[in-house]
Design a protein that fits this description.
Oligomer: single chain
Radius of gyration: 18 Å
GO molecular function, one term: 4 iron, 4 sulfur cluster binding
Number of domains: 1
Shape: globular
Number of helices: 11
Keywords: 2Fe-2S, 4Fe-4S, Biotin biosynthesis, Iron, Iron-sulfur, Metal-binding, S-adenosyl-L-methionine, Transferase
Bound molecules: S-adenosylmethionine, 6-(5-methyl-2-OXO-imidazolidin-4-yl)-hexanoic acid, iron/sulfur cluster
Strand content: 5-15%
InterPro entries: Aldolase_TIM, BATS_dom, Biotin_synth/BioAB, Biotin_synthase, Elp3/MiaA/NifB-like_rSAM, rSAM, rSAM_sf
Catalytic activity: (4R,5S)-dethiobiotin + (sulfur carrier)-SH + 2 reduced [2Fe-2S]-[ferredoxin] + 2 S-adenosyl-L-methionine = (sulfur carrier)-H + biotin + 2 5'-deoxyadenosine + 2 L-methionine + 2 oxidized [2Fe-2S]-[ferredoxin]
Distance between the termini: 28 Å
Pathway: Cofactor biosynthesis; biotin biosynthesis; biotin from 7,8-diaminononanoate: step 2/2
CATH topology: TIM Barrel
Helix content: 25-40%
């Protein structure tokens, strides 16, 4: 099978792949995976939330939006020392990438931006690769982050363009895409994915994969989050995404974007070891490690070490 990279996928093709009998779909995704990746190595990333909560945006799934009464109360930003200590801890438990997060609408230049640039350089000097998720940014800001040593920029599209206004109203899909373009132009690797279980349809999920698969280059990293329901947000009681739908999404993304990393992201806490194994078989090859994501619990570092031992997976 020819599995070279393509940028001309159609919705029809992706739909046919997505709807294959499950085991055929997994076989096909696995075969693409084997041709493009070492199947026993995964990318292990650690999130550090520099600034938590108090975000002005209205993302209806998010614990950190100031528009909803959730368990999160806005916290003071972490200082550089604390961030570097957490990065060192992450390295000691096997992480190879650190993702620095700030709950905000867009990047603001000034003292905080300079501090983040210093953090990026110092973490890079520790031999770790660095990703940031700071909201929308301009090409000039992307360039400044690149100069500080940044490798990846995370900025999720979350869902289809059609469904987006049902999820967020304080920004447009187009604005989101402009930030991905800025990251590409500055030579940063794009990390962009979505959330399953927002109440979207299968077509919305396929449209999301299609949007990514038509980008040249494909996002280097595609986080696949399952909604973690947050009491107090409008999406607190959405129906959970069935496991096989998650597996189908991962496998379709793997086939459409053979060389990208696909990260099994938020929601792993509610997946058994066996369910996670199925996701790896379908083409996932990256995880967030650490007892906490940004605000919610994740699988513990010990549980992940055991899972990786059981499956014969090692970190990069
Ligand atoms: N504020 C920045 C932004 O929106 O780009 C960065 C942080 S934001 C929390 C990063 C991503 O986490 C979101 O785009 C969303 O995909 C994911 N996320 C946030 N809350 C989630 C939840 N409750 N369940 C699953 N994924 C979630
Ligand atoms: C991504 O796609 N998932 C991460 C990261 N990128 C920044 C965040 C998950 C957040 C889960 C909900 C929380 O911890 O608040
Ligand atoms: Fe703010 Fe990001 Fe949460 Fe949206 S997802 S409310 S932009 S922190």
């Amino acid at each position: 099978m020819n599995t070279s990279l393509r940028y001309d996928w159609t919705e029809q093709e992706l739909q046919e792949i997505h709807d294959l009998p499950l085991l055929q779909l997994i076989d096909r995704a696995r075969s693409v995976h084997l041709q493009h990746h070492d199947p026993y190595t995964i990318d292990v990333c650690r999130l550090i939330s520099i600034k938590t909560g108090g975000c002005p945006e209205d993302c209806r799934y998010c614990a950190q939006s100031s528009r909803y009464q959730t368990f999160v109360t806005p916290e003071r930003s972490l200082d550089k020392e604390e961030v570097l200590k957490r990065a060192a801890d992450a390295k000691a438990s096997g992480a190879s990438r650190i993702c620095l997060s700030v709950a905000q609408r867009d990047v603001k230049e000034g003292a905080q931006f300079e501090k983040i640039r210093e953090m990026i350089s110092s973490i890079k000097e520790m031999g770790l690769s660095v990703c940031c998720t700071l909201g929308m940014m301009t090409e000039d800001q992307a360039q400044k982050l690149k100069e500080a040593g940044l490798t990846y920029y995370n900025h999720n599209l979350d869902t289809s363009e059609r469904y987006y206004p049902e999820v967020v109203t304080t920004r447009t899909y187009h604005e989101r895409i402009k930030t991905l373009d800025a990251a590409d132009k500055a030579g940063l690797k794009v990390c962009s994915g979505g959330i399953l279980g927002l109440g979207e349809t299968k077509e919305d999920r396929l449209q999301l994969i299609l949007t990514f698969a038509k980008r040249r280059p494909h996002p280097a990293s595609v986080p696949v989050n399952s909604l973690v329901p947050i009491e107090g947000t409008p999406f607190a009681h959405r129906e959970k995404i069935p496991l096989f739908e998650l597996v189908r999404f991962i496998a379709t993304a793997r086939i459409a974007m053979p060389s990208s990393m696909i990260r099994l992201s938020a929601g792993r806490e509610s997946l058994s070891k066996e369910a996670q194994a199925l996701c790896f078989l379908a083409g996932a090859n990256s995880i967030f490690q650490g007892n906490k994501l940004l605000t919610v619990q994740n699988r513990t570092v010990e549980e992940d070490a055991e899972l990786m031992r059981d499956l014969g997976l090692k970190g990069k």
